[in-house]
Design goal:
single chain, about 110 residues, two-stranded antiparallel sheet, 3 helices
Length: about 110
């Protein structure tokens, strides 16, 4: 994989969740480690209508090549613009952001699938 390989990435967030800035920094760090160039689109969700239209699963959501590598929600789901997301972490823990290594692996896999 060359350092110039590029992937369409959307970072979808709500300001209602305090982890969005750290989540964007995590994405950039993981992309550097994965050696994946990003065509990055940052989307702020500001209304429940927008959340429904985007099938927003909570902040932050990472869409890699248009897909959610951490699992999509199936309807019925009450999409809310200020929803925070929970990610499974090593050791059975849950946190507001994915583990760095999991995001690196997801970026690499998405690039291979692109």
């Amino acid at each position: 994989m060359a350092a110039t390989d590029r992937l369409a990435v959307s970072f979808v967030f709500s300001r209602g969740c305090p982890s969005h800035e750290e989540g964007l920094a995590l994405l950039r760090s993981a992309a550097r480690q994965a050696r994946v160039g990003m065509d990055l689109r940052i989307v702020e969700v500001t209304s429940d209508a927008q959340a429904r239209a985007l099938c927003f699963t909570g902040s932050p959501t990472y869409l890699l090549g248009g897909k959610d590598p951490f699992g999509a929600v199936t309807p019925p789901h009450d999409f809310q613009h200020d929803a925070c997301r929970a990610y499974a972490l090593p050791g059975g823990r849950v946190g507001p952001l994915p583990h760095h290594d999991d995001l690196v692996a997801a970026l690499r896999a998405a690039l291979e699938d692109a």
